[in-house]
Amino acid sequence: MNIKKQALVIFITASIAGIGGWFLHGYSVKNELEFAEKFKDLSECDNVISEKTFFEADDEAMDKMINAYLDSACDMFTFYTREDEMRDYLNYINEAPSMKKCGFTVNVNSADQLYIDSITENSLAWNQGLRPNDVILAIDETVLAETGIYNNAEKICGKNETSVALKLKRNNETIELDFMRYTDTSESTIGVTSKKLENDIAYIKIENFNKFTSSKFNSELKNMGEYSSIIVDLRNNFGGDTEASIELSDYFIGEADVTMEYFTGERYVHKTTLDGNEIEKPVVILCNENSASSSEIVTGLLMQYKDNATVVGVNTIGKGCFQKDYVLSNGKLHYTAGYYTVGDWECYDGKGIAPDVEVKMDKELIGTDKDVQLQKAVEILSDTD
Predict the structure, then answer these.
(1) What local confidence, expressed as pLDDT, does residue 111 receive?
(2) For a designed S-S bond to 17, which of 121, 233, 262, 328 qualifies (C-beta 3.0 to 4.6 A apart)?
């Protein structure tokens, strides 16, 4: 993507959303004037419509206008949405494995206080003393009235069998308790499944990447018992958490880098390590035209750094870029912030990764008796015995 275009779209979207000069460093009055000049016809049309007709553009029309510009200036991964930031944040918290396991949800009341919205009777949360409508005043040492709810409320979530100090207000009473969190990783890691195939081949399918994927993969592999080789199925996996893909790759390879190159010039390097515990058995990675992002990171790392890894399927999507969210006045801009370089390769964005062994197949046949890609993987690993 043209870097100047990427910067320009951010500037223009910022102006459309009305957030002025603080959106990005260097976005000045000069930028605002240039924007006004470039899009003065739009402003003039709006003035005429407002003064001489009864028509008025609604939010949906405004959203379409913004996204039409983004479509013309950026890539398919950049878009604007009119969203409630706090609602999305609370949904993120309430979907956390520890919240689900303990049986309660939180919300924000009209006084901007975090409170227990719902709780299941005799759940883990109930049995520890939480009740509906309890206002959460503090989480550990964080007083929410002082620090704000956003980016602090999530501290109520946590790893399995870890505790957090809660200060609650129930009616006119203040209650302090140590709340023990429990995590149902089986629920949080939907998307990692396994089975043993012929010739003791371990087959593990990964639907997406989240922060539990690598540990779930490891536990599935251990539960498999003795195995001769592994098939990692990344077909129709559109990606997810970057760190999770690095952690998964680290089970198989030694030292390697995955670099996030920001258009702003920043660089962030993820590293795998050589710890002597790498899986040495042969591996086949299955990929297809819907394997993207984190799936491509795993595929690229194993192709480069694991001698007995073979990629079977068809060319991957080619999503070698990553996205960030920026909260605007009335919505959120999801924009491409930079690109990945995986190992020693050049960025494969827009090109994809070609398999070692090409096997074309309709993706609708995955998991059926006509899954010739899986059959080829089994054939390759059976021949290595």
Answers:
(1) 86
(2) 328
